[in-house]
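Researcher: Re-running this chain for the archive, since the previous output was lost when a drive failed. Same request as before.
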Amino acid sequence: MVKLLEELGELANGINKERQEQIIDSIGDVYVVLTILSMQLGLDVETCIYMAYQEIKRQKRQDD
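Model: Regenerated structure tokens:
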């Protein structure tokens, strides 16, 4: 969890300073850390992403 927060901080820094290469690297790092975290928790990261996306789509339809 601490590693995830560290990588998110680097992403925020890259966005704030408009450093495209840092943003790309940080997004990749966040994805890798989330993948490892999900595995440690016995979850599949792709399933987590799919479920979150479905929830966002459902909420968006309700807002329209």
